[in-house]
Design goal:
By secondary structure, the protein is of the alpha/beta class. The chain contains six helices and three strands; from the N terminus they run αβαβαβααα. Strands 1-2-3 form a three-stranded parallel beta sheet, with helices on both faces.
């Protein structure tokens, strides 16, 4: 409602940072059948900076984070964002294996996300997000 005029210094910095990107990847655990309160606050703090930009989701937790992503899709549509179809749901066994690793994490642990019936879900995710970002950026730039 304040059309990007933020009175809080931290809010102004956040708005600038959000406004710089052409697309977003939101990574969140599933927590009590939803996404985190910290992410909700970050989304709600600014508005026009999110508008007209694509977003993809990565989640983990119960049901591979599916319920968190389902809720986020509804929220980002209200922020006038464009959620891509693909999402990365990290299986519990992958999350638990990676969580116990030292940095750098062994990339072999992510094989289940890159191999399977539907092919490389990570590559599909990034290709879809990048293509959507290019298309929306061109559309947004031409409407300015």
């Amino acid at each position: 409602m304040n059309k990007g005029n933020y009175s809080n210094e931290l809010g102004k910095k956040w708005a600038v940072k959000v406004g710089e990107a052409d697309g977003y990847i939101m990574v969140t655990p599933e927590y009590n059948h939803g996404y985190s309160a910290v992410l909700k606050n970050a989304l709600d703090w600014v508005f026009p900076e999110w508008n007209g930009k694509p977003v993809g989701f990565v989640s983990y937790g119960n049901a591979g984070g599916a319920r968190a992503i389902e809720q986020l899709r509804q929220v980002v549509i209200e922020l006038e964002m464009v959620p891509i179809r693909s999402a990365i749901h990290i299986p519990t066994e992958v999350y638990l294996a990676v969580r116990n690793e030292k940095v750098p994490v062994n990339p072999e642990l992510f094989k289940p996300l890159r191999e399977g019936m539907r092919g490389d879900r990570v590559e599909t995710f990034f290709n879809e997000l990048i293509n959507c970002a290019k298309t929306l950026k061109a559309a947004n730039d031409s409407s300015d």
